[in-house]
Amino acid sequence: MRSDPAKGGASAFHPYSSGATMKKQLLTLLFSTALAASASAHANLLFEDTFNAETRALNSSLSNWTVSNGSIDVIGTGYFDFYPGNGNYLDLDGSTRNAGRITTVTSFALNPGVTYLLSFDLGGSKRGDSNSVNVALGNFSETFTLASSAGWQNVTRSITVQGDMSSRLSFDHAGGDNMGLILDNVSVTAVPEPETYALMLAGLGLMGFMVRRRVR
Question: Model-level pTM?
Answer without folding.
Answer: 0.73
